Amino acid sequence: MKNFKLLLSFIFMVSINVNASDTLIKNGTIHIGDGSEAFVGDIYIKNGVINSIGNLDIDASITIDAEGKIITPGFIAPMTAVGIIEIGSLDVTRDDAADYLNMGFSIFRAFNPNSTLIPWNRSNGLTSVITLPQQTSMPLAGMGSFFVLDGKMDVTGMKDMVMLGKMGASSGSRSEDLDLLENLISLGKLARNKNYEKVLESPLAEFFELHLQDIEALDKVANKKLPLIIETNRATDIKHLIDIKNKYNLNLILAGIEDAPLVLNELAQSGIPVIINPMDNIPNSFDELSSSLELASILNQAGVTIMFDSARSHNYHLMRQGAGNAVAYGMKYEDAISGMSKIVADVFGIKNRGSLVKGNFADVVIWESDPLEPASMPLYVIIEGEQIDLITRSSRLKDRYINKLIKN
Amino acid sequence: MKIINKLFTLPALLLCICINAEPFDSTYIAEPSATSLLKNANIYDGEGNEFFGYDVLIVNGKIEAIGLNLLSKANNTVEYDLSGMWVTPGIIDLHSHMGVYSAPGVKTSSDGNESTSPVTADVWAEHSVWTQDPQFSLALQGGVTTFHVLPGSANLIGGRGTTFKNVQSNTIQGMKFPDAPHSLKMACGENPKRVYGSRRQAPSTRMGNIAGYRKAWIKASKYRENMNTYESKSAEAKEIVSPPTRDLEMDTLAGVLNGEILVQNHCYRAEEMAMMIDIAEEFGYKITAFHHAVEAYKIADLLADNGICGALWADWWGFKHEAYDMVQENIAIIDQARNGTGCAVVHSDDAIGIQHLNQEAAKALAAGNRAGFNISKARAMKWITSNPAKAAGIEKTTGSLVKGKNADVVIWNKNPFSVYAIAQKVFIDGNLMFDRDDSSSKPVSDFDLGIIKPNSSRTQ
Q1: Distance (Å, whole) CA B313 – CA B383
Q2: Which of A332, B216, B337, B452 could lock B304 by a disulfide, CB 3.0 to 4.6 Å apart?
């Protein structure tokens, strides 16, 4: 225990320099995040960005010895509710559902930088997230935003940078869901000249009581390549959605897709990136009877671009346990790392993050050991060059009770 | 029954027949197994020991020996060279709803909560189990040889839980673990008060919960007393008084008071667990384990002093208010309480989690050691093997690799505390139930059969 406390005070001493302007990380095993092999080297961080990478001989105000440690980009979780749900079963702590808006619903201003999920998830290696609204009974549910998990009241992020939707969400036929999706996209196409008021008068807009914000959002999806995540598991849905993507020239991402092996070639050829939970092999509905632990490996071998979702609320960082399982069943290791970093940034147009290259924001995690081992934890989490305190509400509770136990 | 009534005019005999001849008894009989010799394996024995390069000899479905350079006398011995591989006892999950919440998770398969009354001690989870649930096979492929199926937590007292072997059978009797005691599922906190409070009936508060348990135990104590009074009468006296009327609900609760049924208590908060311990004391029963118990670490000593296991997740939290105070060290703290006399169990409550209990144990172990404990992997292996066996009342026959116990064994390609470890072979009672090298060995449920590919199974 004494050694442990020494270690703690050492970490504390380092962390009081959080505002220092430059940091040198020495001799770490660096995963850039772009799918390339790791190498041993140094990273120099100045003014919040990665200044250089290589074998560096620089005098920095903070030097971190990372010998034998793994360095990755801060991971980006693409499907979370961080900042808008504090306690799942308590509606008063939830801001993920709209009252009157549809696809125009934005969660951006509900984001709570003081949520306990932020220190928790970033102390586990997430430095930013995409936060999404709840699915609804419509094929398009609303827009999600990107947030950097620095916990600052002045929120860093990208507002309304993705639309979320789902197939089979309504109680009716999925055939009608697909029709409705196409009709909504067509409505968006009509709105390309910003004639929103006129589009609002269309029978479809009136029937669903759409608002100006909804039409504006449809315009972005239909005409301005706003990324669109559609959740579905069924193979036929995947096929039809590929057709819809091509027909309307959409920036489509598919999520779930547990029956994708049945339409593997079509999916691979479509170039559509996917978000999967590699651990969910339960045939939980009649639309996901092909689900298996090999899904990630099958998609990876077919050349599909893969990102990860964690089925467990609050612990979004556990997508790396999912990634670890994906690798255990055959996915390429570096592709799994990339699927939590550069791929997410590229797919969603998140600029200057997601990979450890010169000029990017210094969102960096130094791990005890292999980050795909869920037992491994970050030693250092750096966001925009600032070392983040790893204390969480959970660690405060632990300290309060474990010290009592050890004393007794 | 009418015929029996005529045959046995003595009501006492009738009572004995009713209570002692348990219906739905296990009919499981292990198939004869080959003699197997697992050679040069690294072993966690489930008792807290580890061995490197040792052999395990399996004879007649039982563990015969663990040692160096073992030899088999049987000439048809199947030998496995396991250099670099790992051997553990079969994984045991103390908290499963497989079979009662089968996959696909459609409303016709939602059979886990008899949420029509806050006390339903008369229902048994096993009566809901669908033997063709495809989740059983998935759990087997994750190394799970034994699992305890509980009713859900909608009710204060939800009914009996049952331990199953992860074997294929068309009857629940054929899957039931022979001679395993039933459990009684009890639930604290938010769930019962939410379910019944929303219907404007008791309980709608935590105090209502406590009143509900005590009322049930008062009734059960009286029932048991009446039964005992009657049983203690002479045969002559029994001729002239009629036996107390049997009550299924009271049979279960009296079984707890008699120590025959083990209490598995869903309970998150520290103060609620402490009150449940007082209630157990008030009515003279024992709580075997608190389940989920996100706040167990706050009263770790109290649990250790009372010999109560904590059946816990490694890191689930936040889905409801009573699950807000999660610490990743919870399992390790329970394990280390009172100089390591605590009983920690890693449970799943989830059809995905059950397949990766080794990974959950790995997270809990790492968190504990990071916080300053010095817990070995060999000890942490107990959290998913012998400790749940103890909490399910089956520790004499399974849960560790000890001579004479059932040969429930998993062979892993790597150290099972790694995310990259995959169960390669799974034995139950010495029979190879799953072999990753032989896809035809994968158990295929009736549901799985021909559903995507008419000439194949769902999973192949």
Answers
A1: 11
A2: B337
Q: Taking residues B220-232, what's their average pLDDT?
A: 97
Q: What is the mean pLDDT of residues B362-366?
A: 98
> Residue B13 pLDDT > 50, yes or no?
no
pLDDT, tens digit, for every residue of A221-279? 999 999 999 999 999 999 999 999 999 999 999 999 999 999 999 999 999 999 999 99
pLDDT above 60 for A141: yes
Same domain, A261 and A335: yes
Report pLDDT digits (tens) over A147-206: 999 999 999 999 999 999 999 878 899 999 999 999 999 999 999 999 999 999 999 999
Cα separations (Å) of B330 from B311, B344, B368, B369? Answer: 10, 9, 8, 12
**CB-CB contact of B154 with B195 (8 Å):** yes
Nearest residue, CB atoms, A289 vs list B417, B418, B458: B458
Residue A60 resides in a domain: yes
Angle at the Cα of B4 from the Cα atoms of B3 and B5, rounded to 5 degrees:
90
Instruction: Flag whether pLDDT at B97 surpasses 80.
Output: yes
CA gap A212, A215 in Å, rounded: 5
Q: What is the predicted pLDDT for the residue at B17?
A: 38
Q: Are residues A226 and A324 in the same domain?
A: yes
Tokens coding A45? 């961080």
Within 8 A of B423 by CB-CB distance, chain A residues are: none
Total domains present in chain A: 2
Q: Does B325 touch chain A (CB under 8 A)?
A: yes
A382 in the same domain as A238: no
**Least Cα separation, residue A355 to chain B (angstroms):** 24
| B70 lies within 8 A of chain A by CB | no
Q: Structural domain of residue A62, as residue ranges?
A: 2-72+370-407
What per-residue string of b and e applies to A224-241 under the rule 16 or more CB within 10 Å gives b? Answer: eebbbbbbbbbbbbbebb
Domain B90-401, what fold? TIM Barrel (3.20.20)
Does residue A359 sit within a domain? no
Q: Judge if A378 and A260 occupy the same domain.
A: no
Residue contact B317–A314, C-beta within 8 A: yes
Q: CATH code at A297? A: 3.20.20.140
Q: Which ipTM did the prediction report?
A: 0.94
Compute the nearest-CA separation of B230 from chain A (Å).
49
